[in-house]
Amino acid sequence: MQEMWKTFFSSGPFIPHGHCYLWQTPLVWLHVTSDSIIALAYFSIPITLIYFISKREDLPFDWIFAMFGAFIVACGITHIFELWTLWHPTYWLSGTMKAITALISFATVILLVGLIPQALALPSPAQLESANRLLEAEIVDRHLAEAALQKAKEELEIRVEERTAELKSQTQNLEFANRLLASEIVERQLAEAALQKAKEELEIRVEERTAELKCQTQQLEQALSELKQAQSKLIPSPEMSFFKQLLTELPHQIHNPIHFICGNLTYAREYVDSLLELVDLYQEQYPHPLPTIQEKISDIDLDFIKEDLPQILISLTIAADRLRGIVQSLRTGSRLDAADIKIADLHESMDSILKMLSSRLTPQQGSCHIEVIKEYGNLPKIECYLGAINQVFITIIGNAIEALEENSHSESVAASQPEPRNIKIATKLLDNELVEIRISNNGPEITESVMKQLFNPFFTTKPVGKQGIGLGLSLSHSIITVIHQGELQCISAPGKGAEFIIKIPMRLK
């Protein structure tokens, strides 16, 4: 128990939050000033609420203000801990305070939901005013009845009084009707103003959310582009430390914005649905808006917005889920945590890599579809450096895709429908000791002069300015022949494309 409390209040192996800001003085002071002002504001709000409750003793449900005060004070304390953890990394204590804040906020929400029916049951000022008007009308009728009884003896006076009472009654009815009409006009104007405000807020929120999602998507695309560039520029080293560090950090960094997009898309759809329900409710309660509002509805094509906006959010959700799947495949395919010798399933690794490269296999504008033909044999799990083996697969399959794309583009100039292209992957077990993997394509053949230099370091057939420095196949050859003591060869013939044959032992020596 003592060790637990000691760990709870100690910094442990953590580093202060200021390291995340690189201890840049302007940035640190920016966070210190912001959190301090927010904390002061949070602490001042409960004082105002307490003063308000003390002055209004007749106020019902005063305890809900106390709950709100406790919740706001807890929020202020969490900002104080944000300042504290800049220099003292007691994250367990800070996290506990956030948990307490979460419990108080959740309890406040539950109590507030139970309080809503009681608050709605309170009579409104309009209902009290209507009751007063009914009492006034009843008093007037009673006075008229008394006047009629007192002057019942004289017929002429009775008729005059009756006529006078009738005229007064009609005048009062007209005044009452005028008041009702004026009240209805005011309510309609307020409703129309609220509807207009709701539409403007909806448009602003949709624009902000769309801009935010576009920004996050651009960040993801940039991160993926940087990943591809980093992979193509990988330099071989005995332990491949640079390659391991690169593919360990990038999938994690890409995962964070994807998680942010997926989490906020749910709230965005809920907000849009709520605002659209509010617009429908206003249209149902006030079916005949003012000409200005009707003109605005026509200009923005409100019906199209209500139909198209949810579809846009659904499309964004599908795109975000697809990006999340790509990142997951990237993390599974890279498997740089397997730097040591591992017992691996090559078929599982190959499927993960194909899924990671799926965007390059699908048809693009001006290119044809690339079909992947898998002829997997019955392979057992083998001993290997899985991260290095996956790099070999990525290099060979990536080169095959590039060769098919370039050949398809050249043929599409002369033919409207390019010939279908395919990549064939076949595996089998040789003599219970060797595993053979064949990766072939039906693209252009490799010339004899290129074949002689194919595995030489820094040799490339790509023109200047294109991605690649000629290390992919050289590194792959070293991984297979030196690290795994296997074989890697390439064969090619006119009209049959190119085929890479990999043979590695099932157990490393």
Could you characterize the architecture of this molecule?
The longest helix is centred in the middle third of the chain and has 78 residues, at 155-232. The chain has 14 helices and 7 strands. The model is unreliable at 231-240 and 412-417 (pLDDT under 50). The chain has 509 residues and is α+β, with helices and mostly antiparallel strands. The protein starts with a helix and ends with a strand.
The gist of it:
By secondary structure, the protein is α+β, with helices and mostly antiparallel strands. The chain is built from 14 helices and 7 strands. It is elongated and about 135 Å long.
What gap, in angstroms, lies between the N and C termini?
A: 49 Å
Strand order of the largest sheet: 2-4-5-7-6
Low-confidence runs of at least 5 consecutive residues: 231-240, 412-417
Helix content: 55-70%
Q: Helix/strand-derived class?
A: alpha+beta
Q: How confident overall, as mean pLDDT?
A: 78
What global shape is seen? elongated
Which percent band covers the strand fraction?
A: 5-15%
The radius of gyration over CA amounts to: 38 Å
Query: H/E order of the elements?
Result: HHHHHHHHHEHHEEHEEHHEE
Biggest sheet, open or closed, and with what strands and sense? Answer: 5 strands, mixed
Helical segment tally?
14
Tell me the total number of β-strands: 7
Using brief descriptors, characterize the structure shown.
509 residues, alpha+beta, two-stranded antiparallel ribbon, 9% strand
Q: How are the secondary structure elements laid out?
A:
Layout (H helix, E strand, L loop, with lengths): L1 H8 L15 H31 L6 H23 L6 H31 L3 H26 L4 H78 L8 H45 L5 H10 L1 H33 L7 E3 L1 H11 L1 H4 L8 E6 L6 E3 L1 H27 L8 E10 L3 E8 L6 H5 L19 H12 L3 E6 L5 E8 L4
